Amino acid sequence: MSKFGSWSRFAGRTLAAAAGAHGAPTKLVFVVTKRCHSRCVYCDIWKEKDIPGALDGELSLEEVRSVARANPFLQWIDFTGGEPTDRPDFPEVVRAFATACPDLLLVHFPTNGLATDRINRMVSGLRADLRARLVVTVSVDGPPELNDRLRGVRRDFAHAVATFAAVRSAIGLRNAFIGMTLHAHSGSCGETSAALVERTFTAVNEELARRGAAPIGWEAFHLNVPHLSQHYYGNQAAPAKDGFGGPAHRAEVAAALAYAASRPKMGAGLVERAVERIYRAEAHRYLARGRSRIPCAALQTTAYLSERGEVYPCTIWNKPLGNVRKTGYAMLPLIEAARVAGVRQTITAGKCPNCWTPCEAYPAILAAPLRSVLALLRGPRSEA
Ligand code: SF4
Ligand code: SF4
Asked: Does 230 score more than 80 pLDDT?
C-alpha cells in the first residue's frame, strides 16, 4: 500500500464518520501492560504489580497477533500502559499491528523515560523497520524536585530528559515530545500551574544543555489537561479541598494553557499547529463548562482495548463493552453491539463522564471538521 493511498483512505473514512457513517474505528488506544516502575502520586496503576494476581491475564503476544489480524482496519494506534516498554516484547506487539494493518499510518506511545537504554533500543529498532510514523512522548510533571516528588522516583527528571534526548536523536525533532500533565497547582505546592510550566520548560533545556544536547522549542513541549479514570488511572477528584479537579485547579490549568499558547512555536507543520490550537481552544471551554463543543468520536472513529482484552469506549469511561477473547479477537462485533445498545447516543448526548484528553480529542477534532474550523477561528479565548 502506498502512503498516499493510506492517507486517502484515512481522510475518506474520517470524512464519512463526520457525515454520520458508523464504520470500523481508525484509531485504537491499547494498554499493552499495567506494569510500571514509576510511583506517581495521582495514579494507582504502578501499585498493581505489588498486588498478587493483579497483572495476570494480560493478552499474550500470540493473542496480540490475533487481535491485530482480526482488526486490520486500524490506521492510528496509541500504545500505552503502565509503561509500555516494561513489557519485554513491546516491539513485537507494535510489529504485530504493523504487519496486520496495511494502512497503519501513526504509532504513538508515551513513556516515563526511566530506562533510557532499553527505551532507546526499542525505539531505534522500531524506527528501522516501521513504515508508519513513530511518535514518542516522554512524560514529566514539573521542574526536577517537584517532578521527582510527584512521580516518586529519585532523579526521575534527569532520566526523563536523557531518554528524550536519546529518542529525539533516533526518530527526529518532529517526532519526539515532552508531555507535561498539569497535576500540580498552587493549592498543592504554592506555585501556579503557569509558573510551573515556565520553570519546567527552562529546566528541561538546562538539563539538555548539561548533556550537550540541543534545546527544545515550545512546539515540542505539550501540556495535558489532567483527568480522572477509575478503570484506567484509578484516581479520584478532591474538589472539596480545591485540590485536583477542583475549580481553582481548573482555572490554573486554563491559565497555564494560555501561557504556553503565547510562547513562540517553530517548525511545527500548519495542520499540527491548527489541531493544537483547536485542542487548546476547546480545553478552555471544557475547563470552564465541563464540555467541549466538538463531539466525541469514541465508538465512531476510536476505541480502547485493555491489557486483558476488554473493549471500552475510551480511556476515561469505565464502561466495559465485552472481551475480544470471546469474539475471535475482533473488536467490531463489540463496538457494533454497543452502538445498537445506544452507547454512542449516550456519548453524543453528553451523558458519559465527559473529557478532553489528547488521546480522544485529536481524533474528535478530525472527525468534526466544521466545528473544528469554528473553534480554530474563535481561538483559545476565555470562557470564564
Ligand atoms: S501515570 Fe504513567 S508513569 Fe505514572 S504510575 Fe501511572 S502509568 Fe506509571
Ligand atoms: S467524552 Fe465521554 S466517551 Fe468521549 S472520551 Fe471522554 S469520557 Fe469517553
From this structure: no
Structural domains in the chain plus CATH codes: 3-378 (3.20.20.70)
Q: Across residues 294-316, what is the average pLDDT?
A: 95
- The answer to pTM > 0.70 is yes
CA of 60 to the centre of ligand 1 (A): 22
Nearest CA to ligand 2 atom 4: 296
- Closest ligand 2 atom number to CA of residue 292: 1
Reply yes or no on whether the pLDDT at 22 is more than 70. Answer: yes
C-alpha cell at 148: 521527582
Dihedral, CA atoms, 259, 264, 269, 275, nearest 10 degrees?
A: 10
DSSP letters, 148-188, are: HHHHT-TTHHHHHHHHHHHHHHHH-GGGEEEEEE----HHH
- Sheet (strand 106-111) strand order: 221-224, 176-181, 133-140, 106-111, 76-80, 27-31, 302-305, 310-312, 322-323
CA–CA dist 316, 228 (Å, integer): 7
CA distance 78 to 235: 21
CA 86 from chain centre, in angstroms, equals 17
Distance CA 331, CA 363 (A): 18
Question: Dihedrals φ, ψ of 380, to 5°?
Answer: -80, 65
Which residues, 6 or more positions from 82, have their beta carbon under 8 angstroms from its beta carbon?
31, 32, 33, 34, 35, 36, 45, 46, 307
Q: Residues 6 or more apart from 169 whose CB is under 8 A from it?
A: none
Query: Do 82 and 34 form a contact (C-beta atoms < 8 A)?
Result: yes
The DSSP annotation for 202-227 comes to: HHHHHHHHHTTPPPP-GGGEEEE---
| 3-state SS assignment for residue 278 | helix
- Are the beta carbons of 22 and 16 closer than 8 angstroms? no
pLDDT of residue 282: 87
d(CA 350, CA 297): 12
Q: Place 228 in a pLDDT band, splitting at 50, 70 and 90.
A: low
Q: Using the mean position of ligand 2's atoms as its centre, give its distance from the Cα of residue 123 in Å.
A: 30
- Could you tell me if the CB of 114 is within 6 A of ligand 1? no
Distance (angstroms) between ligand 2 centre and the Cα of 216 equals 32
CA–CA distance, 305 with 315 (Å, rounded to integer): 9
The secondary structure element, H or E, covering residue 135 is strand 133-140
Asked if residue 38 has its Cβ within 6 Å of ligand 1, the reply is yes
